[in-house]
Amino acid sequence: MGVLEGKVVLVTGAAGGIGKECALLAAREGAKVVVNDLGGSVGGGDAGDAGPAQQTANEINAAGGEAVANSESVTSMASVKGMIQQAMDTFGGLHAIINPAGILRDGMFHKMTDEDWDKVIEVHLRGAYNVSRASVEHFRGQQEGSYVHFTSTSGLIGNIGQANYAAAKLGVMGLSRILAMEGAIKNVRSNIIAPFAWTRMIATIPVKDEASAQRVERMKNAMRADQVAQLAVALASPEAKDVSGQIFAVRGNEVILFDQPRPVRNMANLQGWTPRSLLDVALPAMKNSFFDAGASASVFPYDPI
Questions:
Q1: Which of 153, 251, 255, 268 has the fewest beta carbons closer than 10 A?
Q2: 165 is an active site residue
């Protein structure tokens, strides 16, 4: 008996990469799956195609599972409400949402266009809001529901050329935290995953030097989308009833629990601080506790396990 036996799960971005692996695995673990994918490009610059979502649904059905396709966009609240209703009409319920849908529009911040900023925020942050807001009252009413949203080390740690993506993904972290806090009394859970995996979205990141080329090769060869799906499906399961409000990463065969912002150093001045005393005393005293501006590769410099 699978960990999602008898449950209904909506998976966004499920035509390829992490989303597809999540949909396939959720079905193998007993879930009935609404397979959502706009079918657009990695940059989100076209109208999309219903075919890719249907292909994933067909794979599930051919293997003996139950799935239905949806090719609407997570950026539209009306469309997301339609996904929720489709789950209700087709399978009689909804118990979890796995939400890896996303796009990339990378560029140095001083060269970033308003369109590239808005598009990424719209898909990642507005999309996470839409799927959560459209379903949260249903989850609270049935006193059961799990959100598995996706963040990124680009936001948690940082990555040059991804200010839009980082901002959106940290926004998802904040949203997930509040969903977990407000949902606790109603058994509504929310967790986030920062995935390390080779997908068509990651393949668009430009390789500009030998170090980044080696990093891409490590990701391509040792960090797979199906490894990320294992945790996503586990978190969607009601058996993970005590897991909420957490930040995870999956890196190859590693599952990593991230800390969350908490005070690391405190300085007090009974006479009150001034700009001069802060510059002379407080900031120098805190300097050894500052975080550097290194990218995620500086935090994870070792080969994946």
A1: 268
A2: yes
